[in-house]
Design goal:
This protein has about 325 residues and is an alpha/beta fold. Helix content is about 30%, strand content about 25%. Strands 3, 5, 6, 7, 8, 15 and 16 form a seven-stranded mixed sheet that branches. It has a six-stranded parallel sheet with strand order 11-10-9-12-13-14. β12 (about 205-210), α7 (about 220-225) and β13 form a beta-alpha-beta unit. α3 (about 125-140) crosses α4 (about 155-165). The protein is globular, with a radius of gyration of 19 Å. The model has no long low-confidence stretch (mean pLDDT about 95).
Length: about 325
């Protein structure tokens, strides 16, 4: 079968379509014929080696973790799915890629595809949906009436997180460029800062939760817009010691991550706010709940561009430019 793989870490990872063996599902796994797979920023980061010490892969490795497709085979221990079921899933950090003609998916990571979405739409949801769910509901415990800020509201994670925060009853502030103000307001954003005209840290105040999605000094600037005892949940780093402990990493990495996060942790303490780094994990039960919100039309997918399978690498290149409005998806069939 064909899959989008990379052969080595570094500046020349040799990303491209390659012939690989069709995987065989284990007792607790599904074999899914992939109809569509979306790409995420982490897919461009992994081949650089940035997360080599954290995310273990056997090279050459298949890229991608978001997929939607049809179950073609089930392991002997699978009880919730059968051949022919339409599913969507995220397989990040499970050692299996998604941008391939077939993919193995642990039963615990899969959920029924929302009936009102096609495969392309469904494939756009898993990682941004799970990341938003775990950041807002679990880590930050966002409450009705609280004020939530997410920069880059027109991006893949932003377009979903805005909608989920509104479902949770929060007030939402975001940043975007002039041309995307209408998009984010249409998704529910209450306060929109046009970053081409103003700096968010000079405009926003009184936030309870910030979801960090932009690299650079944006995280540090976010500290000043939070109320006392507010929370920053960062998806872009710096990694912290708590993250190392949660993943059972060695003491050396724990020490390194503690050093990396020392500056932001100190700044957060000075302002009486909390900082933490989040690595989302696959969860079929959570994905099923997200699917129910989608079927109830409380959340909708936002897709910028769809690439054919033959142009899967071009999809990654397009995403890397940082201008996508919503998600970028690869259609396999």
């Amino acid at each position: 079968m064909k899959a989008l793989t990379f052969k080595r870490y570094g500046k020349s990872p040799d990303i491209g379509l390659a012939d690989v063996s069709r995987p065989t599902p284990k007792a607790n796994e599904l074999l899914v014929q992939v109809h569509a797979a979306s790409v995420n920023p982490i897919d461009n980061m992994i081949p650089t080696g940035l997360f080599k010490a954290v995310v273990k892969l056997q090279l050459p490795a298949t890229l991608g973790s978001d997929l939607a497709g049809v179950v073609t085979e089930v392991g002997s221990g699978v009880t919730r799915f059968k051949v022919g079921d339409e599913v969507f899933a995220n397989t990040f950090d499970l050692g299996t890629g998604a941008i391939a003609e077939f993919a193995v998916v642990p039963e615990r990571a899969a959920a029924p595809k929302p009936a009102n979405l096609d495969f392309v739409q469904a494939a756009s949801i898993p990682l941004v949906g799970l990341t938003s769910w775990q950041a807002l509901k679990e880590r930050a415990q966002l409450q009705p009436g609280q004020k939530f800020f997410i920069p880059a509201g027109s991006g893949g994670i932003g377009t979903f997180a805005i909608q989920l925060a509104k479902v949770l009853g929060a007030q939402v502030a975001t940043t975007t460029s002039t041309g995307n103000v209408g998009l984010v307001r249409g998704l529910g954003a209450d306060e929109v800062v046009d970053y081409t005209q103003q700096a968010f840290e000079t405009v926003l105040r009184g936030c309870d939760v910030v979801l960090g999605t932009v690299k650079g000094d944006s995280i540090e600037k976010s500290v000043g817009i939070l109320k006392p005892r507010g929370k920053i949940v960062s998806l872009v780093g710096p990694l912290d010691a708590a993250f190392a402990r949660d993943r059972g990493l060695n003491v050396v990495l724990s020490f390194v991550f503690r050093l990396m996060s020392h500056k932001i942790k100190r700044l957060a303490r000075q302002h009486d706010v909390d900082y933490s780094f989040l690595f989302a994990h696959p969860d079929g039960d959570q994905l099923a709940q997200i699917g129910q919100l989608i079927e109830a039309q409380r959340i909708r997918p936002v897709i910028d561009k769809v690439f054919p399978f033959e142009q899967a690498k071009e999809a990654l290149d397009y995403l890397a430019r940082g201008r996508a409005k919503g998600k970028v998806v690869v259609k396999l069939r």
